[in-house]
Each structure stands twice: as structure tokens, then as C-alpha cells.
Design a protein that fits this description.
The structure is a homotetramer.
Chain A lengths: L1 E2 L2 E3 L3 E15 L3 H12 L11 E8 L10 E8 L2 H15 L7 E4 L7 E3 L1 H5 L8 E5 L2 E8 L2 E6 L2 E16 L2 H15 L5 E2 L6 E2 L3 E3 L11 E3 L22 E9 L2 H16 L4 E5 L10 E4 L6
Parallel strand pairs in A: 2-17, 6-10
Antiparallel strand pairs in A: 1-2, 3-5, 3-6, 3-11, 3-18, 4-5, 7-11, 8-9, 9-10, 11-16, 11-17, 12-16, 13-16, 14-15
Helix pairs in contact in A: 1-2, 4-5
Catalytic activity (chains A, B, C, D): N-formylmethanofuran + 5,6,7,8-tetrahydromethanopterin + H(+) = N(5)-formyl-5,6,7,8-tetrahydromethanopterin + methanofuran
Keywords (chains A, B, C, D): Acyltransferase, Cytoplasm, Methanogenesis, One-carbon metabolism, Transferase
GO biological process, one term (chains A, B, C, D): one-carbon metabolic process
Chain lengths: ~300, ~300, ~300, ~300
């Protein structure tokens, strides 16, 4: 099908289950909340080589947070539940507790299927000087530190969410693909319960499982040469159309498949509005690996 | 001594050796370089619970970089050399190679005492499609990806640097200490070869080795209750002066002791310019643990 | 009354009618829209010496704009209708038409009592190459420029709104007042139909009508010495309490009194959450000049 | 000639004399200085319809400013000296004096040929409560306000500088031209004594003197249809090459011709590094109007 003159390939994105946490970080000012949220979600692109997949989901104004201060909701994701708990303890303990004026709240709410005692465990840093308190119906711990009292909700909700939602933007030039990817990310930033964990939300490198070159047989994954514009005239079976010179991928994680679908839809729509975009496609493994199949064309029916 | 009316305690910051890498990330635009540098240095406050200590050191304009594009120098640090190499491979491989239009250069230059083959190892991602090339006297690898060709210098220099340079800002209110800490960080950002790895450069929580509460004997480190303003009237031997209600610490890592000293000096000077700052002090272990002792008062002689 | 332990003076903010326009600027990306919106609303603090009062009201995601691209709503205000039209032609013609990929839409909607033919007049820049087109029910002009086609709605709605809504934050130190003012602005940024036209939304200088010093009789307005913390011990009738050392004012313009009241309320609430804030008050002329009286305490009943 | 494979037209940019002021704004933190500098230089693209041409030139770290605080140098320009003084009084009086913690210093230094008594005049706002003081060799006024004391140097230096330095970037797509323009601005931001007064430094609309359409004879300037990519197939004598679909202009003002030349040079170099850029040219009036002729090719000899 075509949207805004751009060809949408009749294919699907194949996505995987992942444990997702959704956490609200508040602070005295928006800027302070963003600094903590950014640090806590850094080095969090893909669990292939990062210790977690993480990102900022959205800003929450002071009028809508439990403590009446501005905040950011972040998501931290990991395939293994125990590793996710470890990541939460480390990222919240080192990048949020240490940041000026912050507090931490569960933001998974009723979506949660389980809870991790992250606040309960971090409170031991208080050495007995911490106190337990109620904020509305929330059980909080208040830990004295140099910058005042750090407050954190006792339990943080998690659930099985979705990782690896994706689509590819192919355009006449690298810059057209790049601006389209930026526009896609801007649009996706408005979709609740999703994050785009790569730098600025955009992925510049595509990989394939394994290798082609027998000398590189020690590599578990290598560049997908068929998707490299600079190789389109020199490799066999290149998937780069003749009029395409730039490709970027958007990867989406989220709390549930519906959210990832919505993000995929608004992201594609935004990308197609940029002049020079030629084709949108998606990555999959033939449906063999991931239980979630997000069919691009169905999103627009 | 007093500076701008602020009491500078006659004490010293005790700092430790750490392996430091110094890497330049360039991109098509300043914004793209910053996005990659921010992701690559996230979750990097302290090796106590983060996988590395990392931060952005400075911006380098296009006129001063090897490829004539804007860039940011980052530092990534770890006590163990092998762990540092691992961190470089992961952080550059996942957070920079994947980011649009980036290239990576050694920025340690002649300060290096050793080199890690980071580019050489990451090039295997190219599956044989990568090429080796020279840029001036630099050996580079060019790896085809969707967004063009990712370029990285073959070897990255490292050396034994300094971690844990520090000073504490004590002020009449939490906000005075906070604004003073922000001013200190702004000043330190102008000092080459140093980073301030905590969120926004500022540390809100101070810790002590071990515990006081016997029920918490499983904790290796806990809050330093003597430095907590909200406990100043309830704990014994509080180190919080009567007129102090806010404390923040600045932690500095750097390529060498001279750089960390300079950062400490300009940071303290900047902090003392903020109304309400009462006292500057520093953290140490009596000189027993860290070989670097940065005496605050000597900095101003 | 007291809120979060802060004394709220039983007084009122006196505000004035002003002609208000409310305009949506969209662009290919959020960043490009923000650049145009920022330039178009600069040099717009107070009509005492600026050519208009102007500010960014809020971000609108791509999913909620007429052209499916991200945008910012700005407000531009002037006491005289003809001057407001002049300002719109100049600011939109010079700071938005010239900016990459922008489009301009009316955002006053049904609140408008009159319309200015701003798009109709700016289209003459097209020298006959412009075209008239419909976007849903909107009449747009499309003007060819180097960066593509600049699109602007034919008519922009205006109405009599409210200028000069205000409150003052008094705190133990300059920094406490400053952080509280930042927190207030963060909260007000979430209130629709209002702007805070001063730099960063915060006013550091208070003025009185006329002069005290007879040598300065040529001045129409001078500093309000009674509200200067550094003069509190040297001027007569200082209004600075003994425990106050920092004062900032928030000034609010808006589409109607309800919006300005709501902004005043959430701003005060946010400010009172910052440690060290002692008192909130407001500025008025005894009710003689401005027809709008926003009573602080009534906001919280 | 060709640079990085991009055709540089053998033409020149024609520039004009303009009165230039160069002013340093410092504040407690970098962020506060930037807020004031941004507000003071807004609505300042072109004196055709803006009250001045203005922009931020560069950041100055705390270690290099007269008061040891971080700051930004701005330039404000106007063809008429009296109008420039008026603009300085209004922009510094309304957008900087009102902003938290700011101070203002002359940054023209020995380049100045004349001085305007801007600080001397603004001090009257102090109503006699202001004081005169020395900071090193500078004569300063200190005016008590709510946020402390606003400090401003008595006299600000001005000189005849250069306005309207320019070059045009033509590329295969709108996005390639846009990213190249962003790269050019990033590079120019590193050149001292120059500003790029348009939004984000980039000009999306080109104009010609007068009109073509006789019905529009009341217009002094209209779109330059020959430079509009969307008209390239429909207007006579289009100057858009067949392979070009996006054009942006960079306009540069500066303290002297040397600075504007240097900015032009580094900007062009940066633009040519972006894939898809086809041609660089410049705008002139045949040399009849502006005394400054910046020949593009000579810059690279």
C-alpha cells in the first residue's frame, strides 16, 4: 500500500516478550527530573550488549504526579526477571538516589502482573535512619541523604511486555532518512507505554544473525550487508532499491503489543510526511522466533 | 581559609587510580554527536554499582576534529583494564556505532601509556565488508551500516588516571547548595581532561563504608548520617553546622591529578560565588586508601 | 492562610485586558518547530519596552495538529489591536516564514471574537506564485520559498485576554526563591491558554510607578526599593520580612481570567513545595487600574 | 571549483555596513545566562521587519569572564546608531535586567570605535539606590532589584561591522540541504565575532527586491521564484539545477569582514561534508549596493 506517496511493504515486524518496569522519577524541577531519568536510562539500547533496554517514555507535569512535582516516566526492560530487578536496584540506586531532589514511584499501576521490592531493598542504604510513610495509598520509604530525603515506593510493578517492535525508513538520501527518523521519534514520543531505546530513538546499523565471511565465524551477529546503501552495487541480493541512499530503523519496546502497534503506526505516518522517503519496511525472522507479529499494512486499515 | 566569605576546610580529597580512556565522537551535527555521547556515558556514575564511570568531557568544534565534523570527547573509566576494554566495546559498539553518522577517534593522544584494540575488534561487525583506511596518520576502519559507513580508529589510548576527586558544598538551604553545585559543574565543564560522572555532575547522597545499625550488617556501604541535614539534630556527631541545611558533593574523575586539581579549584571558586554557601570540605579516608591527596587550601595558595 | 507551611498573603493580583493571539507553529520535527517558536516570541517580556508580550504556551504532538506534524502554540499579546496585527505580520513573517519547514495555524479556535487577515497579507510575499488551498475546513495559503512551500492559515483569531497576572515568591535565600520560581514555571507550563512572557518565565526586578528620588523625575518607572532584599535594612517601609533574602515574581498572560487563575494556583502550589519559601504575595494598584482581581487565598478555597 | 565534490560557484556575497554591539551577559549558571541571552536576541532576524539583527555569538566559561561566572556573548546590530542604542536599552533593560542573577559587560573591547552610555542610562532605574563601583578597570553600576543587585558596565563599545554575509546550500533533497545548513551553523558557531541572526541560523526563504506580478506592486520585496525548488519546472530562468530539490541560505553578521569571511569559509566547508549537497553559491546585487564583496572561491585559495 501507499501512504503519502510512500510504499509500505506488506510485511511484519517480529517482536519478543521482555520484562518491563515503568517507573516515575520526580524532582524539584523538570530539569532535575530529566537529568536523573537520562542517566538512569543511558547505556540501554539493546540487551545484546547493554545491561538493559531503557528509555524515557514521557514527561508528567506536576499537577499529575503523586507528590505534585514534575517528573519523567522511564521504562527499563530485560528478558530475565532477576536481571531486571538487579538493573532497577543499580540504575535507581546509582543514578536516581544520587541525583538532587528526586523521588521514585511505580508507574505500572494496574498493568502490573508482579511486583519487585526495589524500594524495600534500597531503603537499607538508610542504615536504620530511614522511615516508612504513606503517601495516599502508596507505601514509601524516606531515606535521609545529603540533599534531603530520598523517597521511593516500596514495590515497583512489572509485567511481560514487548521488545523489538521495528520499522525501517528508506529514503533518497541519508539526510532524508535521518529527518524522517527524527520525525518518527517525535511522533512516537507522544505514545504512552512505549520507549525507543536506541540513541535518540534511531538505529543506524542493521545486523543479521551470524556471519557470511567464514573467517568471522566467531561473530554471533554482523552487519546486514543487504541493507547497506554503500554496498548496494557490490553485494548480491541487496535489498536497497535503486533510488534509496539512506536507511534508518526505529526500534520500539513497550508495555503491551497495543502500545507498540500504536507507536509503529504514528511513527510510520510521521516518516511518510518527509520528502524523499521512498519505502517503509520491517524486520522479522519469518515468524519463527518472536510471538508478536505487527503487520505494517494492517495498522492502516 | 576563606574565599568569597566561604570557609574552606583545611582537609583533602582522597582519590584513587583508575584506568581512563578518552574518546572523541564526531557526527554530522553537534546534536547527533551529543545524542551518541550521552547514551554512551549513561549509567556510569560510580563503579560501586554501575559498570563504568563515564561522562562527557567537552565539545570540540568541527574546525578542530580529524574529520572536520563537530564532536564530543568522552571519558570512560574502570579500575580494571580488561573491564575497561569490555566497556569500550559495549558502549561504543551499542551506543555509538548504532547512532546516526558517527565516527570514533582516540583522544588520549600522547598521554596514553597503553592502547586497546577497540576499533580493530569492532570492525569484525563488518563481516569482511569493512575496509581499512588512513586519515592523516590515523589507522581507521570503515564499517558499512544502514546509515552509511561507521568509522573508528583502530586503537584507543588509555592510561592510569584519577577517580574520586571530590568536594562538598554546604549551604544555608538545599537550593543554595544546589545552585552552587550547578555553578561548580558549569565551571568544571571548562576544564580539559576531567569529567564529573554523577547525574548532572552532582551527588546528592553521601555514603560511609559499612553500617551503624547491626541489623544492616549485610550492607557494604550506607548513608553517611553525619552529613544528612535532616538528621543534624537527631544523630550524634553530626558534621552539619547549625547554619547549614543543604549539602551536595561534586565528584571528579580525570586523566591526571593536575587536571582533577584544576577542576577542584575552579569548581570551589564558582561555588563560593553563590549567596548562602557557608563551607567547602572534602572526603577522605585519613589518607590510608587513596594515593592521591588533593589539599583544598593548597589549591588557592 | 498557609499552604505547605508557606504564608499566602490575603491580597490580589491586579491584571489588565490585552489583545491576545494564539498561533500554532508546526514543522518537520519538534526541534525545528521550537526554534521558530522561540525566535518569534523573543524580545517579548513586557509592552513597557518590548514591542509585544509573547511566549510559548505548549507543545502539541504530531497526532493532534492539522498537518500531522509536531508544533508549538505561541501567544502574542498587545494592548492595541492594530499593533498586535503589526506584530503578527512581523514576527510570523520574519521569524517563522524564514524558518525551515514551518507552517502556521490559528489556535484560538472558538475562543476568538475577531480575526486578523495575517495569512492573507503575508501571502503577497508569494508574488502571485502562491496558491490558496483547503486543509479540512481551513483556508490556507501556500507560498513557494527556497525550503519548499510555507503554509499559513488565512485568518488568525484574537480576543481580549488578560495580562499581568502575577505572584511573588519570597524565600530565605536567593537560590530558594529561584528554584521555587523554576518549579512554579514548570507547573504553569502545563496550564493551557497561558504564557509567562519574561525570560524563563521569571522576573527578577520589581518596579514602582514613578520615582522617589527627585533628581530622577524623568523616569516613568523605577525599581521598587521596598521589595529589594539588599536594601531591606536601609530603606523605609521595606516589605521584605526579616527571614527573606530572595524574591522573584511570576507574570502570567492568558486567553482568559480562568486560565490565568489556574496558572496562578498551580504555580503557587509548586513554589510552596520548595524548602525555604516563606511567603507568597501579589502585586496590585489597590484595584484602581486593572479590572481583573485574582485573590490568592480564594484560589485555594 | 569543487570542495569535497561540491561545486562552489565563482561568485561573491555582497554585504553591508551595520553598527554592531558586542555584549557579555553573565549569570549564576550557564542555563540562566542562556535564557537571558536568548530572550534578548529574539525577534532579531533582519532589520527589514525586525527591530534589530541579533544573535548569540558564543559561550564564555566562568574562568574567562570579568566576574568569574559563566556567560554568553551576544551581538545586536542596526544600521542606525541611535536605533542601536535604543535597542540596547530596551533589550538589556527588559530581557536581561529582569532575568535572574544577570550582569552585563562590554565585550567589544579594543575593537570599539565609539561607546554608548547604556549602563549609565539603565542605572536610573535604580532611583538613586544604585551604586557606582569598579571591577578591575571597569566602571560598573549596581542596581538593587528583587533578585539581588543587577550589575552593568557603564559604557558599551560599538563599531561599524558587516551585515548580510551569506551563502546558499543547494542539495538533492530538502533534508540534505537542511542537515548541511545545520552542520554549517554548528561550524560557524565556533567562529568568534560573528552571529547568524535567523532562526537556528538558517534562512528558508529567499527574496528579491520588488515584484514580478504587477498586481503586487505595493510589495517592496517578494519571494525569489528563481530559487524555489517547487517552482523549478514552472518559472522562467529558474536557477535551481535539475538535481536540486532543497535550498537554504546562511546569513552572517559580524564585527568585521575578516570574521564574516572566516565564518563563510568554515560554514561552506562543513556543508560540503554532507552527502547530497550539489552546489554552493552566494547572493549579491552585482556589486552595486554593498561595499563588502566576499568571493567564495578566494576563501579556499
Amino acid at each position: 500500500m501507499e501512504i503519502n506517496g510512500v510504499f509500505i511493504e506488506d510485511t511484519f515486524a517480529e517482536a519478543f516478550p521482555i520484562w518491563v518496569s515503568r517507573v516515575l522519577i520526580t524532582a524539584a524541577t523538570e530539569k532535575l527530573a530529566k537529568i536523573a531519568a537520562t542517566e538512569a536510562t543511558g547505556f540501554g539500547c539493546s540487551v545484546i550488549m547493554c545491561p538493559a533496554e531503557a528509555g524515557i517514555e514521557k514527561y508528567v507535569p506536576a499537577t499529575e504526579t503523586p507528590d505534585g512535582r514534575p517528573g519523567y516516566i522511564i521504562e527499563i526492560c530485560h528478558p530475565k526477571k532477576s536481571a531486571l530487578e538487579h538493573q532497577l536496584l543499580e540504575r535507581l540506586g546509582q543514578c536516581v538516589l544520587t541525583a538532587p531532589t528526586t523521588a521514585v514511584f511505580d508507574a505500572m499501576g494496574e498493568d502490573a502482573t508482579e511486583h519487585l521490592k526495589v524500594g524495600f531493598k534500597l531503603k537499607f542504604f538508610g542504615d536504620g535512619y530511614e522511615t516508612k510513610e504513606k503517601l495516599n495509598d502508596k507505601v514509601m520509604y524516606s531515606v535521609p541523604i545529603m540533599g534531603g530525603d530520598f523517597k521511593i515506593e516500596s514495590k515497583l510493578g512489572i509485567k511481560k511486555g514487548v521488545a523489538g517492535g521495528n520499522f525501517f525508513i528508506m529514503a533518497d538520501s541519508n539526510s532524508s532518512a535521518l529527518v524522517a527518523a527524527e520525525a518518527a521519534i517525535d511522533a512516537i514520543n507522544g505514545v504512552e507505554k512505549t520507549i525507543t531505546p536506541f540513541p535518540g530513538g534511531i538505529v543506524a546499523s542493521g545486523s543479521k544473525v551470524g556471519y557470511t565471511n567464514p573467517k568471522y565465524s566467531f561473530m554471533a551477529a554482523t552487519t546486514n550487508q543487504k541493507m547497506c546503501p554503500t554496498l548496494k552495487d557490490s553485494v548480491e541480493d541487496s535489498e536497497i532499491p535503486a533510488d534509496v541512499n539512506g536507511v534508518y530503523e526505529i526500534v520500539i519496546d513497550g508495555v503491551d503489543e497495543e502500545a507498540v502497534k500504536e507507536a509503529t503506526k504514528v511513527g510510520i505516518l510521521a516518516a511518510t510526511k518527509i520528502e524523499g522517503v521512498k519505502k517503509i519496511t520491517a524486520g522479522n525472522y519469518g515468524g519463527k522466533l518472536g510471538p508478536h507479529q505487527i503487520k505494517l499494512c494492517e495498522l492502516f486499515e
